[in-house]
Write a structure and sequence with these properties.
The protein is mainly alpha-helical. Helix content is 74%, strand content 0%. The longest helix has 21 residues.
């Protein structure tokens, strides 16, 4: 799914090698699992903004929040996803 790939791009650096492609698929799976365990507000903000491709304004309207709060929610959620991938890196294939 391209929206999940776009989210993973925000969380990890992309790799072009075959082993990098495997690592990327593994990172996508870990990202999905981690996303499911985020607080509801974080998960909803990330889903609306990055997976559904809504603008910050559209996300703010859908969540009845300010645009500034959407920026904060997304930044915090992305940090949590990055942290989770960092802890899970032992499960990712090593890219050359």
């Amino acid at each position: 799914d391209s929206s999940m790939a776009n989210l993973v791009d925000l969380v990890i650096a992309s790799a072009k090698s075959p082993s990098g492609s495997v690592a990327r698929r593994e990172a996508e799976r870990i990202t999905l699992v981690t996303l499911a365990h985020l607080k509801e507000d974080y998960r909803r903000a990330i889903t609306l903004r990055y997976l559904e491709g809504r603008s910050v304004a559209e996300t703010a309207t859908a969540m009845d929040r300010t645009e500034r709060s959407i920026h904060m929610l997304c930044n915090r959620a992305l940090k949590k996803l990055r942290d989770a991938l960092g802890r899970s890196s032992q499960y990712l294939s090593k890219a050359p």
